[in-house]
Amino acid sequence: MKFQKLYNNAPVFIQSLMISGYNYLAYKKRYGKHYPNYLRQYKENRNLSIDQLEKDQSRRYTEFVNATMKHSPFYSTLFKNIIDPTHLDNIRELPIVDKEILRQNLADVHTITKEEAVVSKTGGTTGKSLEVYFTKNDMQERFGMLDAFRASHGYKLGKRTAWFSGKTLLTARDIRKKRFWKQDFLYNVMYYSTFHIQSRTSLAYLNNLIKFEPEFIVGFPSSILDIANFGLQNNIDFPPNTVSAIFPTAENVDDHTREILEKFFKTKVYDQYASSEGAPFIMECANQNLHLELQSGVFEVLDDNNKPAKEGRLIVTSFTTHGTPLIRYDIGDRIKLSDDRCSCGNNNPLVEKILGRSNDFLYVPEIGKINLGNLSNTLKDVNGVVRFQVVQNTLDTLEIYVQRDEVQYTKKDAVTFVENLRERVGNSMELNINYIDEIPREHSGKYRMIKNNCVHLIA
């Protein structure tokens, strides 16, 4: 509280120094003595054969489960009656652990104390937050892996970066002066608030972005999309050859979002998937194909009957979660695997699409579940929609909230929008279209396209 009061009352320059100091202490944990070795290792290992990747995955799985059973009372009890739980071939004999089971047993899941740990809290968008513990070694390996991915697209720590995340850094004075960003001078990062992006503030954001000249943009894609849409709608030309790559975080990137971001910023989007709990990584290569990173863990895709499937629930075992182990953890997301091979040199298996949260779906009795990936294409051939959100409170009605540009959004666009919705949800649902000035974000600063409030009604 004293620090926050001091920060709020400090001049802007001092606030920036305080942010730099805070990041310096945090980065000492992320970029400690083991980090350079992990960064080098994952850069060198990007072209391993599939046989080498699978052998390394099997070895790491055995080591990880052995260590977990030795140090975690929860897992040692859970696996005590399973024959050879440390062998990857037997993974399907192990129980699946969901978020609620993990939460209820956290004290016995943890293998280290809070004082030893790098603490991470998951978002509470779809339930209560979790507090998970990482060992310093695991945290440094995760950042080594992540930075090796970004380095393959030109990034290096210290290069000029614009960051859109859920950090709460602004004061009332900043908002009055339409100053929606804070700078970390030490690491060359400009942090932009994702809580204040609206049509009336977007020009201030965009002018500062152009002035800052970021080489990389990182953060919530829905927030970056707001800025790009505003720029396109107002015929603002973002300077070419400025941004080398955009790295989305925390949200899914649909085809429409990718198209707009790449068009406005004149660059490429390279996506990656992980989680606050420490899920293994899925990363996008130079060909913009998503790869399962087998060196980071085990990925299972299961249908509703827990049978292996090409599309379904994602169950993960993560090798970088020794402090709060994740073994056969139902992360709450869905993905679709691909049978294709990639020519980029990375031999990890491909993911066709990350479909989003398992409860980010609509339910139509005559059709069944309609997931986020299907709904996101509703804007095809529709102009003037800044964003939209679908809220389902009953099984027969959908509330559609549309944030539009009143100049570009024509009657023809309105008709096409509804037609595209009907293609996805059928004709039995009642659609209530509501035009509003701004679609509110979640407390985390994220934006949700689907809010299903009647999951409990679905058999």
TrEMBL record:
<keyword id="KW-0436">Ligase</keyword>
<protein>
    <submittedName>
        <fullName>Phenylacetate--CoA ligase family protein</fullName>
    </submittedName>
</protein>
<dbReference type="InterPro" id="IPR042099">
    <property type="entry name" value="ANL_N_sf"/>
</dbReference>
<dbReference type="InterPro" id="IPR053158">
    <property type="entry name" value="CapK_Type1_Caps_Biosynth"/>
</dbReference>
<dbReference type="GO" id="GO:0016874">
    <property type="term" value="F:ligase activity"/>
</dbReference>
